[in-house]
Design brief:
The chain has one domain (about 10-135). The protein contains four helices and six strands; from the N terminus they run E-H-E-E-E-E-E-H-H-H. It is of the alpha+beta class. The longest helix has 11 residues, at about 105-115. A six-stranded mixed sheet has the order 1-2-3-4-6-5.
Length: about 160
């Protein structure tokens, strides 16, 4: 993002993130998606404020059935760039940059913001009837190995030891 020569005040930018972004950044969680980023940049005498609004979907792998599904994500992030002598990250929201810096690469920030937007547990959303949209064949196979249906005789021997 070019920052040298920007006039004071607010500027609006809009761009799309998709497969190419995921490839270039090495985004491990997804290789496909369609995300819209609205960036408001507000330049002041001694700092630049960035406000990111991100919304769209990313293709993820379900933690329950291992099939891919589209996960909707939406969120906002704020960053302040302060002018100083050298590059230094003061906090998650404040970065000091050299006053003569001509460009500021936001791709790493967007990568980090997307990671934060992902759910902790990635599973298919429920369908309109409240049923899991997971692969039913995979769920059947997993159920065959659940503790309720699968008996491992080695556990019986361990239980006898703990009873003594």
């Amino acid at each position: 993002m070019p920052i040298a020569g920007l006039a004071l005040g607010k500027k609006q930018y809009s761009f799309q993130l998709g497969r190419k972004f995921f490839e270039l950044t090495g985004f491990a969680e997804s290789s496909e998606g369609d995300l819209e980023v609205q960036l408001t940049l507000d330049k002041h005498e001694n700092m630049i404020e960035f406000h990111f609004a991100i919304r769209g979907w990313m293709q993820l792998v379900c933690d329950r059935c291992a099939d891919e599904y589209n996960q909707y994500v939406e969120g906002e992030q704020h960053l302040i760039l302060k002018f100083g002598d050298h590059l230094k990250e003061e906090s998650d929201e404040i970065v000091i940059i050299p006053a003569d810096l001509h460009e500021f690469d936001v791709s790493q920030l967007l990568y980090e913001y997307l990671v934060v937007l992902l759910p902790y547990r990635k599973v298919h959303p429920e369908d309109e009837n409240g049923q899991s949209a997971c692969n039913p064949e995979m769920l059947r196979r997993i159920a065959q190995h659940s503790p309720e249906t699968y008996h491992d005789p080695r556990w019986d021997a361990l239980r006898k030891l703990s009873d003594n």
